[in-house]
Predict the structure.
Amino acid sequence: MKKKSVKLKKKNLFFIVVFLLIVGGVIVYFLKPNVPLKLDVLESKEKTKETITDFENITYTKAIDYAEKQNLEVKASYDYSDTIEKDKIISGNIEENVLNIVVSLGSIPLDEFKEKQVNELGNVPIMMYHGIVNTTDNKYTGGNVDKDGYNRTSKAFSEDLEMYYKKGYRMIRLKDYIDGKIDVEMGYSPIILTFDDGNENNFKVIKKNEDGTLVFDENSAIGILEKFKKEHEGANVTATFFLTGDLCNQKEYNEDIMKWLVDNGYDIGNHTISHIDFTKINIEKTKYQVGALYQKLENIIPGKYVNIIALPFGSPYKKSHSNYQYILNGEYEGVEYHTEAALRVGWEAEVSPFNKTFDKTFLKRIRAYDNKGVEFDIEMNFKTLEKNRFISDGSMDLVTIPKNLEEKLGETNLKVVTY
Ligand SMILES: [Zn+2]
């Protein structure tokens, strides 16, 4: 019985195989003209037709390739991930012909953070400059142009920029610091430049070309900053200029300069209409001094200025002063104004925006002057900063801090990494 059954099965199998061969042959015969012979050709054809809806875990190269074939613009950002391998996509979506992807940087490189002494609770220097004067007069200490060092020589300012750079400081916008958006490469530190009073020598225009472009004095602050930009490829060059009612002190070019500044990575803030001491005026005048200047800026560069005030004379010295709330919020001629942050004259570096004591409405600055390394001059401050400077983790999504500083951390929406 057993034997017979096996025989039968063998017979059946034979017929099945023959049948399949015939059917297969017929199919191949009919499809032949349409079926490419080589397998890789078949695959590439399929690729162009493929629609990717879920980008997670595909490679960066594949995503870019796909975007090219679909004529999509690519906007990539990067983030660390413990689950998605380096160079693979964490998430992606298509919106109006733009492929937005978040690319994995792999796991958080704690060892590298440690080695580079990353500390996003370290201090940040906000430099306070006034006039930049093209003089070689060395009557005063170092690069000081006056006794108290409020104005600085062009040469000293240029050397300051080189010194900051060599020490690993990279310029960021004051506004970004306030918002906790510190876009600085891993291992480097942010620095902020500010200029008060709108001195002509900050952005002296020599001439305006026929095509409308401005030619700046190469020894003005802007002249020096733009030269620095050319000499340091890829370096972010920025500063915030705090103007009074006299704007850039160049009647003929005021509006051109202001537009040029905000179109070229610089910012403009409020230094009151007539450089007033807030402790010497009443509430109505306070509202005028602040509100009217915002309106002036709004008229010339609508929506492109920063709602930040540099307090003239650094006054008041205390936030408890009765006028302070009107520096921050008020109404002038029926138009409301809001000041997001205020700068004092100060003497030393300010805390990190992630520090729980951070108060953007009362920020300290470093006076950019020389005094042989004492009384909070530039040298002294940068020496102090060596012990406690903000050192970036290179990611805008993380706040990385040494474990022992944890208790200093304020509230944040960002991911906190400790080591
Ligand atoms: Zn001033």
Remarks:
- Residues 196-197, 271, 275, 312 surround zinc ion (CB under 6 Å).
- The mean pLDDT is 92.
